[in-house]
From TrEMBL:
Highest rank taxon of the organism: Bacteria
Keyword Lipoprotein belongs to the record: no
Protein name per UniProt: VWA domain-containing protein
Signal peptide coordinates: 1-22
VWFA domain sequence ranges: 286-461
Pfam families reported in the protein's UniProt record: VIT, VWA
Keyword Ribosomal protein assigned: no
Sequence ranges assigned to domain VIT in this UniProt record: 36-164
């Protein structure tokens, strides 16, 4: 097994599938003890350590005022009593007051330290503990408590309450909670949760988190509840929430980020349709359910498929059209043509579903054509939910011909939504069907419930608000010779906007300044046009919206893999894939060699990485089986990402996410406003085998031969802290991720530094 693979396997046991950040942390004051962090190599168990057992954050936001309550349970996991202090880094740019600290029900005084005094306190802790962990909060203020005891094995419950005035920028209210302090726990947090209740005097429109996948519930237009929970999680990024308000029906907001003058900028468009009243009439739609009942569906799978069919039937509305096409070696249908949904047809369809039994082959070609040929009305939204658990074994079996026939038969722009069940599906065929027919694939693993996936798909498409959506951009006095001002937009095609769902669209822009966003589509069968102002930044000295760049890069990588998957290898696309992965630290199953500890920097700087990627892309030939499904699941996750991959502690800020045992995705590094991209790690050939971390820009440097190009800085020296004071918070976050027993090269503001 390659060395990096064994290391990833070990660290993946420590990190969960989704990265998060935590909040308050404890500092041992009676002896220097390194802050416990997840690390990639075994370390002796310290005599003094703690773990965070539970972490709950509840916030209520009324317009721009936030009230926050935090409950956090610490456990002394060491074998000695600890005298500790509780530190809480302040959220950025927020006026925080009225902080109350309760420890096991007893109130403790908390001292507010402004940023300058807090910096001195941070530096003192870093020097005393010989650990750079706190560097990421340099420049932030903090609250500091008095000392209190924590006996071995004992628990302490800390409750924190404070009020904060939130900042508003580009029309978005910005809530930040410093969740990332919980990554200093010795063990994963058993349960971590964030709940934010928003109330507004105006209608709440877009609600978006660039850091965490959220569940959003809206009881009415002016209230929303955002929740995020995980178990056995090592937090790794702060929780950030953005929302805006307005009085128009459809709402859109544009965020832009331009880190360098030489390259195109990046933008993010958020668009949310209005919430319909409970008694409002919903647009009428057509739903076709195409279900596999071949022999391989027998047993539990066919029963789950029947339950899924019943769920859809019980959630259709008066005026909807529907039908069920069931197939094995032959194809049959509930009715020869589409049926109007009524109570009588619902009952009849439920009876038909009860009579479905598994047996025979798999005639995918004829099943799809039977369904698509029933669709005649392009003025209403049409959805085809296509479920299969196998490969085409009857009739036309050629993947390309099946896809071409389905595309030709889809004359009404129906949205084809394939669901692959198990590992015996042709995942490339399903992805091709989805891409050619305005849909999205989904995969149900053997241990998952089909009904759960079908209900999720149907709940998403159940209430279309605007259909046949087109997003356009208008600039003042456009110049033809400059080319299109907007380019490389993802997703490539926006089809429908659904109630309760938000459009997250990213792209690049050439031209800065004022512009207009135009969103057109059909609402209730009538054309509608909405216009919104937008401002594209000429430069972005601060990395406030730096996540937009990484989100775009994530989706672009997913699109590249999709192109290579469906159309074969392309030298330029492979090069772009590698360059984007390296620059933005978004590793894929085909570029994971960038995390190889044994790789030499000069090798990483050479064209060898492209040839390695070419070889690894041979895996895309596996369209079937566990590996085929795993690869398409990874690809879809990249293509449809709504949050920017976050860096976590461990491998130089690597966030490790085990998608499947056959596909391990690693994300490493940060993009720091044009100063620093991602970084990799290798062994330095020396007696003590210290480790060296390098950026792509410094990959070809040799620490011994190229001393004239490198400034050497001793860790924890005056020069070290002087460098830290000149850094941005994001740059210090990069330094904070390093281990004290490793050397690393980093490029900041055009200069190379070797930290020893």
């Amino acid at each position: 097994m390659p060395r990096w693979t064994s290391w990833l396997a070990a660290i993946s046991m420590m990190l969960s599938s989704t990265a998060v950040f935590a909040q308050g942390l404890m500092i041992v004051v009676d002896r220097p003890v390194p802050l416990p962090r997840p690390i990639p190599s075994p370390r002796p168990i310290p005599s003094a350590s703690y773990a965070i057992k539970e972490l709950h954050i509840q916030a209520k936001i009324l317009d721009q005022a936030a009230s926050v309550q935090v409950s956090q349970t610490f456990v002394n996991t060491g074998n000695v009593a600890m005298e500790v202090q509780f530190l809480f880094p302040l959220p950025y740019d927020g006026a925080v007051d009225q902080l109350t600290l309760l420890i096991d029900g007893k109130e403790y005084p908390a001292q507010l330290l402004p940023a300058k005094e807090a910096r001195a306190r941070y530096e003192a802790i870093v020097r005393a503990n010989r650990d750079p962990a706190l560097l990421e909060w340099m420049g932030h203020g903090l609250f500091q408590t008095s000392v209190f005891p924590l006996p071995p094995g004992a628990e302490r419950k800390v409750m924190l309450q404070y009020h904060q005035l939130l900042r508003r920028d580009h029309g978005l209210t910005d809530f930040l909670f410093p969740l990332s302090t919980a990554k200093y726990t010795a063990k994963p947090v058993e349960r971590v949760g964030v709940r934010v209740a928003i109330e507004s005097g105006a209608d709440i429109k877009n609600v978006y988190s660039p850091t965490h996948p959220m569940e959003i519930q809206r009881s009415d237009a002016r209230r929303a509840v955002v929740q995020w929970t995980r178990t056995n999680e090592i937090p790794s990024s702060d929780f950030r929430l953005l929302y805006d308000v307005g009085r128009v029906g459809l709402a859109a907001r544009v965020l832009s980020y331009k880190p360098t003058d030489k390259d195109d900028g990046y933008f993010l468009l958020l668009a949310s349709p209005p919430l319909a009243a409970a008694d409002a009439e919903r647009p009428r739609k057509t739903i076709l359910f195409v279900v596999d009942k071949s022999g391989s569906m027998s047993g539990k799978k066919i029963e789950q498929a029947k339950s899924a069919l019943k769920f859809v039937l019980n959630n259709l509305r008066e005026g909807d059209l529907f039908n069920i096409v069931a197939y094995d070696s032959t194809v049959e249908a509930f009715r020869p043509e589409l049926e109007k949904f009524t109570e009588d047809t619902r009952k009849a369809a439920l009876g038909y579903v009860e009579g479905l039994y598994a047996g025979g082959g798999t005639n995918i070609h004829d099943a799809l054509l039977t369904a698509l040929n029933q669709l005649k009305d392009a003025s209403r939204p049409n959805y085809v939910i296509f479920l299969t658990d196998g490969l085409p074994t009857v009739g036309e079996r050629n993947e390309a011909k099946i896809a071409a026939a389905a595309k030709a038969s889809n004359t009404v722009r129906a949205r084809l939504l394939p669901l692959g069940v198990g590992y015996d599906v042709n995942s490339r065929l399903l992805d091709r069907l989805a891409r050619d027919n305005f849909g999205l694939s989904e995969y149900v693993r053997p241990d998952e419930d089909i009904e759960t996936h079908v209900s999720k798909v149907y709940n998403r498409i159940g209430s279309p608000v605007m259909t046949d959506v087109v997003v356009g951009w208008e600039f003042d006095a456009p110049r033809v010779e400059e080319g299109a001002p907007i380019n490389r937009v993802y997703p490539r095609q926006v089809v429908d906007l659904f109630e309760g769902e938000q459009l997250v669209l990213v792209g690049r822009y050439k031209r800065s300044g004022a512009a207009k966003v135009v969103i057109e589509g059909q609402i209730g069968g009538r054309p509608q046009r909405f216009e919104f102002p937008a401002e594209f930044a000429a430069s972005s000295p601060q990395a406030t919206y730096g996540f937009v760049e990484k989100l775009w890069a994530t989706r672009r990588i997913g699109e590249i893999i999709d192109e290579l998957d469906l159309h074969g290898k392309n030298d330029e696309l492979v090069k772009e894939l590698v360059d984007l992965s390296l620059r933005h630290g978004i590793l894929t199953p085909y570029t994971s060699f960038l995390a190889d500890e044994s790789a030499r920097p000069r090798e990483l700087a050479s064209t060898d990485r492209y040839s390695q990627t070419f070889r690894r892309l041979e895996r895309l030939n596996e369209a079937e089986g566990r590996a085929g499904v795993a690869q398409r699941s990874v690809k879809l996750g990249l293509q449809n990402a709504t949050t920017a991959p976050a860096a976590a502690a461990g491998f130089a800020g690597a966030a490790i996410r085990e998608i499947d045992s056959d596909a391990l995705v690693v994300q490493t590094g940060v993009r720091l406003a044009g100063n620093t991209a991602c970084y990799v790690r290798r062994n330095v050939p020396s007696a003590n085998a210290d480790k060296l971390v390098v950026t792509p820009e410094t990959a070809a440097l040799d620490p011994e031969k190229d001393r004239d190009q490198i400034t050497v800085i001793e860790r924890f020296s005056d020069a070290y802290f002087a460098l830290i004071r000149d850094n941005t918070p994001a740059e210090n976050q990069l330094l904070a991720a390093q281990q004290v027993d490793e050397e690393f090269l980093v490029q900041l503001r055009g200069r190379n530094y070797l930290i020893k």
